[in-house]
Amino acid sequence: MPIKSLGFVTKRNSRRKWIRFRAHHLIVKFRKLNYLSPQGTAPMLDSIIGVNKYEVVGQPIGAWTYFKVSIPDDKLLQIVDNLHDHNDTLYAEPDLPMAPCLIPKDPMIEANHVKESWGPRFMKMFPAWDIQTGTEDVVIALLDSGVPLSETRPQTALSLHENLKTHLKHEDLDGKRFIAGWDYVNQARWPRDDYSAAHGTKLAGIIAAKQDNLFGNDDNGESDVYIGTAGINWASHVFAYKALHWTGQEDTEESEFLSTKALVHLGVKDAVEYVQTFVPAKKLVINLSLQTTDDTVEPGTLDDIFNLVIESGAIACVALRNAHGLAEPAELGASNSNYSGHVIVVGATTQNDKTHWKHVFGDMVYAPGSKIWSTSKMNSYEYINGTSPATAFVSGLASVMWCEAPQLGATEIVRALKDGCRKPSNDALSSYGEMEGEGNSFGHGIINAHQAFQEI
Fold first, then answer.
1. pTM of the entire predicted model
2. Quick one: the chain helix, strand, coil %, rounded to 5?
3. Is 43 exposed, middle or buried (0-12, 13-18, 19+ CB in 10 A)?
4. Closest CA to 315 of 453, 445, 139, 455
5. Tens digit of pLDDT for each residue in 158-178?
6. How far apart are CA 320 and CA 314, in angstroms?
7. What do you get for the CA distance between the two ends of the chain, in Å?
8. Lower CB count within 10 Å: N or C terminus of the chain?
9. Cα–Cα–Cα angle for 86, 308, 146, nearest 5°?
């Protein structure tokens, strides 16, 4: 069933306090497979939600099912509570919004040529490129706002394996390396980035912008002139999925760029299934530069997302939220022992080893996330800030490390990346005791690409 609208409602609930959820949509995981009839119904659902008051959206993933219900919004949280407490369910939850970890700032576009950003230098990527720049042994799934495609879709729908060679509209992004994933917002194989801030386009550039991008010759016709920037990985394919949607309502309460847990779950599932079905010999790195928007929620679907990553042998790089001191349990649960071998939680640092945002420290890494130059809309370049670009740097690094050692498993690559991190400067460390409280560390530290390769 096409998902055409992303309307959100904020309600108060005794168990969840204030919570913002997607109207009419809920997620249920049952205790056993095939709980639903072939028609997508069950007596328990009929009694709690009402006969003919619900329908399954898409196909269930095992015991996990995504529903659209035709009940008033103010009844949804009570229905969720009743489902959650039933013996036949493992959990039930409203479909919560997710958003990119971007701190919006006025764009800073420089007219003259930008040779290189501070990010790759800071993370010691230049000497690491002497070791590995990327191969086709690894694929990267980018679940975000999409990539820069033309407004008009081709008359013939793109196939499952088709690249975006003739459709990608940026001089610094090689369409032959980008594969058209699904647009979960508009239900089409056309993951176009329609967000004014070009969030997905910027992350695509950090991960995979073309290197040695020749523009032409100088005025004398003697020296080569290069343009743009270079991504961390120069060769691996990128599956571009659109799981984030711009509401398009400027200067209103809904003026946000949003996704939901369900859409992200579907994207991760599709990326995993694509690799397992069509390119099983390849490794998968998933970039999730997004955040949950509620502090008082339960981990169910995020747990399932991370479990998919673990079961498939993939690596997921997950942005720690910018705006909050604490992430919900499963988001940082990406930091607990069940996930730490496959899921890397990423915070953002400045050139001075400091963060602009109050982060939680734990089993996580830090990467450049302040004033990062990358590809943007209309064949341009802009800065991006936050844990979103920091996560893209980590995804790129994890992917090239795996290209160098494809015989290793995900846990070995993750361990090497963490072990290669450096500790921040003493001046930076001294400021965190006051900001975060005594006894906190800086996680594993700040990524060091060259050292990470030595740890493989």
1. 0.83
2. 25, 25, 50
3. exposed
4. 139
5. 888 789 998 999 989 999 999
6. 19
7. 45
8. N
9. 110
